Amino acid sequence: MKKIIHLILLSILPLLINAQTTSYLVKGTVINDKTAKFAYLVVAKNKEMFKVVPIKNNSFSFSGKTDLKGENLKPAVLFVDERGNITMDELYSKLKQGVWINGRKNLRPVILEEVTFEIENSQLASKSKVTSGGILTKQWDESKPAVAQGKSVEFIKKYPDSPVSLSMIDKMVQMNDAPSRGDMDKKQPLKVLYSLLSERLKKSPNGIELKKSIDAL
Q1: Model confidence over 44-67: pLDDT tens digits?
Q2: In the sheet that 38-43 helps form, which strands lie side by side, from edge to edge?
Q3: CB–CB of 151/139 below 8 Å?
Q4: Is the dihedral of CA 158, 159, 165, 166 positive or negative?
Q5: Residue closest to 196 by CA, chosen among 160, 165, 155
Q6: Distance, CA of 93 to CA of 87 (rounded, Å)
Q7: Spacing of C-alpha 17 from chain mean position
Q8: Which of 3, 76, 174, 217 is 20 to 30 A off residue 89, Cα-Cα?
């Protein structure tokens, strides 16, 4: 019996090691927009998460835990609407068609963490201000223009221990063989960017896999 229990423990140990959850509390206040009645928080990738709550006294809140599933962080989108019956299939279809895309004026990119937003207008939700918390979300916002402007080195030097920096390089690696790099930064060799990461990130499972991917290019 002890041998069987031992074998069972050995079989589930990798799952326990790889299981990594993170807690989040996403809050917001809607001002100057009386049409916004509901708030949505969505992880569209693989239709992983879809939450909707009514906006009460101009405020809303989402909380819970999410499985990172081996990722560095969990990107999501936040938006508010007068409709409360928007479905995941409807949203997912729009995203795939490019009707609503991450970062468009009515969708606010957010990293699942503790963060509070101030939304002035549902049609300009992407411009919502972070009023408290949101360390990773603010870095995520900062990373996009950094890549577009060829300032990836400066960004990673500023945030060497951030999962946002690790994700930035990982995205570049994934796009390396694409016919068009889009807004990917072509000026900085990936190995140089990787060398700027903290030792903690380099030694993490994702950091080790990223190094293998870069070496394999």
Answers
A1: 888 889 999 999 999 999 999 999
A2: 49-54, 38-43, 75-81, 108-111
A3: no
A4: positive
A5: 160
A6: 10
A7: 22
A8: 174
Name, in order, each residue with C-beta under 8 angstroms of 39's C-beta and a sequence gap of 6 or more. Answer: 28, 30, 52, 53, 54, 55, 60, 62, 78, 79, 80
Calpha distance 207→56 (Å, rounded) = 42
| Digit-coded pLDDT (tens) for 131-189 | 999 999 999 999 999 998 989 999 999 999 999 999 999 998 888 754 444 445 544 58
Q: How many CA atoms lie within 13 A of 191 on its CB side?
A: 4
3-state secondary structure at position 104: coil
- Amino acid at residue number 190: L
Q: Are 68 and 157 in contact (CB under 8 A)?
A: no
Both tokens of 102, joined, read 């991450």
Look at residues 99, 104, 106 and name the one whose alpha carbon lies nearest to residue 83: 106
- Closest listed residue to residue 72, CA positions, set 194, 175, 170, 186: 170
Do strands 21-30 and 59-67 pair parallel, antiparallel, or not at all (unpaired)? antiparallel
Q: In the chain, at which residue ranges do the beta strands (DSSP E only) sit? A: 21-30, 38-43, 49-54, 59-67, 75-81, 108-111, 114-119, 129-133
Distance CA 134, CA 141 (A): 10
